[in-house]
Amino acid sequence: MKLEHLIVFGSVMVTAWFLALYFWPRVLLSVFKRAILAKGFGDGPVPVNTLYVQSERSFADPVGAIGGSTLATTGVNRDTLMSAGWLDLRKGPQLLHVPAAGDRYYSVQLTDPFTNTNFAYVGTRTTGNQAGDYLITGPRWAGRLPSGTTRISSPRNSVLVFGRVLVYSDSDVPLAHDVAKQIRIWAPQRGRPSGSTPP
């Protein structure tokens, strides 16, 4: 093979490798976004700017639950109930409410889906187990912070949200599920949704 051919071949391979590294996370992101918004945990679509909690049934029997989960998680999780949501902050911030969790471990992970970087956590190990409200804002938001809230600034207008609530035993699933359902997200201008617990 001539030197010119080797140079061309090497250039093509380097370019292909760079494109694969650059675009593969974005392909996975698209698949993951569709899994959340269209399939959820197997129970149907999860609307944008909501947090959907895994059902007690799918937690108890993740393989046999009707529909099955299409979320690309790290496998079957046997000690934490999962929540998932996709935020679009272009029209304004979203308010995250977490309940008082007592001694129970929980976390809400906020991820920049384009870089797969976790930019904030709310939960036992970072903010404590007391109830609280957190305003998740986009990169250009310049509004007024509502009283009693803590601001979390997102580097982008798209945010991937994962919640986890510890389950101690099979008999504890209903109690853990109740805590998980109290972790809510909504647009602050629409007021607190019905059924949510005030801080």
Textual characterization of the structure:
This is DUF1254 domain-containing protein. InterPro entries: DUF1254 (IPR010679), DUF1254_sf (IPR037050). The chain crosses the membrane at residues 6-24. With 199 residues, the protein is α+β, with helices and mostly antiparallel strands. It has one domain: Immunoglobulin-like (Sandwich), CATH 2.60.40. It has helices spanning 3-39, 56-60, 173-181, and strands at 52-53, 80-88, 94-98, 106-112, 117-123, 132-137, 149-153, 158-166, 184-186. It has a five-stranded antiparallel sheet. It has a four-stranded mixed sheet with strand order 7-6-3-9, with no helix packed on it. A hairpin with a 4-residue loop joins strand 4 and strand 5. The longest helix has 37 residues, at 3-39. The chain is globular. Residues 62-75 and 194-199 have low confidence and may be disordered.
Output the keywords.
199 residues; alpha+beta; Immunoglobulin-like; four-stranded mixed beta sheet; 9 strands
The gist of it:
With 199 residues, the protein is of the alpha+beta class.
